[in-house]
Every structure is written in structure tokens, then in C-alpha cells.
Amino acid sequence: MDSIKKRCPGLLFAILGIVLIWVSQGFSYDINDKFSIGGIIAGVYQYQSLSDAPDYDSEGRGALVFQPEISFKPTDSDEVFAKFGFGAGNGLMEDGQSPFFQAPWAADVQDDYKDINGRNRDYLLTVWYKHTFTFSENHTLGLTGGIIDATDYLDENAFSNDEFTQFMNEALVNGPNAFLPSYDIGGAIEWELGAFSVKGAAMAMGSTEEEGELNEPYNYYGIQFGYRLVSALGEGNYRLIVDTTSDDFSNVAGTAKEQKTCTLISFDQQLGEILGAWIRFAWQLEDAVSMDCKDLYSGGLNIGGNLWGRENDNVGIGYAHLRGGNLDLDHTDVFEIYGRFALNDIFDITGDVQYMKDSMKVGESPSGWIFGLRATAEF
User: Fold this and answer.
1) What are the CA-CA distances from residue 59 to residues 98, 127, 369 (Å)?
2) Among 83, 79, 185, which residue's Cα sits nearest to residue 131?
3) What is the C-alpha to C-alpha distance for residues 82 and 2, in angstroms, rounded to an integer?
4) Which of 375, 308, 371 is nearest to 165 (CA)?
């Protein structure tokens, strides 16, 4: 078993090499009109330069992620879907390497694909069946059940939602205090009527990720109300999300169980052919639960490549302020700017700069610059 584990990174790189060659040849991924495969490959290297963090080193680390997908559509109304995840390296989130509360790359890395949610399940991220009822051209209802990811249904954002092609920092990808869970048993509903939409997810999670006897399963429930506005400026999307859990989370003293509850707004708006703007505000409502981050205020701009004659390129600028909860963190500030260069329809390269500062209630308040390079292939 140990020898197999030692060979896994090399084997992963070999598989990725074959896939990249296949992708570069432009082979079709639609096996037929019902069955298709796809996925994403991403490699990242990040270097952190730290201040006021005496127990941590300024250093660089990398990570490689491979997430293949399989889709089977027996009819126009039905789909069976599965996604897997494999990784080599944990980047700056390797145990003991980063002093920050927010991950500098929000992607799932090597350790995240093992014993997922305490279920003793490795590498299988999602597998679900979806049926869509079509009542008219602008009126549909989708029902999904299986192993799902809540972020596939809630808190979307056109400019701040994808750690593989947009912002990298966890605070700028989703609302980290909204505790949107991934990769466990549940169901989802997607109702769309013209410009209005309602989406919801309910999941039975295997672990609260607390320590020892405090760690136990819990239930999650989330709902999103959305409105899509098309104007002379372009498309805008406005969402209100409310999510909560069962009362299975410990308070600070560990003497009682409480639920988590959060309200979140996520807006994105095009401002012509070049500019786009977005905001995401979130307030976690239950003070009794142990939490690092209570409130989130974030926003930014997207600058399209049409400005310099390359429509598939873009630049993103984002800032987030996170107010600490009832633990050691007082507040966190995150700034990030990235430039994404599209080599073709599949490959792109991103240069990324982040600044983070965790202001603590007591003791050292670490800060630092993080410089990153990301290569991605989507097929």
C-alpha cells in the first residue's frame, strides 16, 4: 500500500500528460449525442512573503489538480453526472505552512480528496441524477438527487466564483462564512420563470470537522432567490441567499450545540462591453457558534480583454473585509489582482498577486504578499 501511495503523484502526472496530449489534439469529447466527458486540469505555484509571522517561513509551494467529469443524457430532460478529483501537493495550505485563516488558493488539493466529509470515500466528488420539467420556453423546474455540491446551485457570481479561472483567494471565490458544503448526500431544486429563479439545496453532511467527540454529522439547508436584469449596460444578476444547519455545532465553551445561520447577497453587473462589477456581502447570524469569520464585505471589478483586442483575456481586481467572530480573529483584509491570458479555447495562464492581513485580538497579526502563477486546461 505504501509503495502505491508513493507512486500516486508520478502516476497522476503521467495520466495528466496523456490527457493534455489528447486535449491538445482537439479530439471531440462528445462520445455521442448522449455521453460526454470533460473536466479541468490546473497547476499552481505560489510564493508567500510574510511579516509578523515568526513561526512561519517565507517560501513557495505548488499544487496540481485534476477533476474529470462524465455526463450521460439519455433524454433531453434527464442527466446522470459524476465528477472525480485527484491532486498532487497541497500548496501553501500544507499543514503548518500558512499563517492565514483564508486559503490563498480555494481549490481542493491533495488532502481534500481523501476521506471526504468523514465518509471514508476518496476521489469521488459528486454523482447525481437530474430531471428537468419544461413547462414553456422560459419556465423550467429541475430536481437533482445524489452526492452534490451546494456551490453548484447557490452563491454564483459571474466575476467571482471560479478558483480555476478567476480569483484564487478563498475570500473572493465564495462567501467563506456562508459555510456552503460540498460533496455529500443531498438534493437540489432549480426553478426558473423568465428573469426570476429560486434554487435550493438540502444535504446530510458527514462531519462538522470539529475535534474528537464534538465531531458529528449535521444537516444543511440553503435557498437562493435570484433576478436577472438585461439592460443597455448588459446583464446583471442579483441574488439573496439564506442558509442554515441543524443544531450540531459547538459553542465557544463546548458546552452546548447550536445551529449556523447566514444571509448573503451576491450581485454581478456588466457595465458595457469591457467593465463588470460585483459585490458579495454575508452576515452570519448566530453568535453562540464558534466561528472565525462572522461578516464578509467584498467586491471588485472585471476588465475584459476587448480593451486590448483579446476578448478571451481578462483582469480581475477584488477586495474583501472579513469581520471576526467569537474566536481569536478580529478581522481580515484581502486584496487580489490577477491577469488571465487565454492561449486558446482550452488553455490559459494567470498571473496573480495577493495581499492578506489577519488582525488578531491578542498577539501577532500576520500579513504578507502572495505571488502566484496558475495554468489551467478546461476541456
Assistant:
1) 10, 37, 11
2) 79
3) 28
4) 375
* Cβ burial, residue 288 (10 Å; 0-12/13-18/19+): middle
Among 225, 175, 174, 173, which residue's Cα sits nearest to residue 200? 225
Three-state secondary structure call for residue 110: helix
pLDDT for the residue numbered 256? 83
Helices first, then strands: H and E counts in the chain:
1, 19
Quote the CA–CA distance of 368 and 46 in Å, as a whole number. 12
Confidence at residue 29, expressed as pLDDT on a 0 to 100 scale: 63
pLDDT tens-digit readout, 245-284: 999 988 887 778 889 999 999 999 999 999 999 999 999 9
A 10 A CB-CB count for 199 gives: 23
pTM of structure: 0.89
Q: In terms of Cα–Cα distance, which of 126, 185, 177, 183 is closest to 155?
A: 177
Judge contact between 379 and 43, C-beta under 8 A: no
Low-confidence ranges of the chain (pLDDT < 70): 1-30, 287
Hey, is 236 helix, strand or coil? strand
User: Which pLDDT score is estimated for 93?
Assistant: 86
Helix locations, the chain, DSSP H: 2-24
Residue 250's closest CA among 285, 206, 213, 220?
213
Domains of the chain by start residue, with CATH: 45-60+71-84+97-105+115-374 (2.40.160)
Determine the pLDDT at residue 6. 43
- Predicted confidence (pLDDT) per residue in 163-179, tens digit: 999 999 999 998 888 88
CA distances (Å), origin 251, targets 2, 283, 288, 375: 39, 18, 5, 41
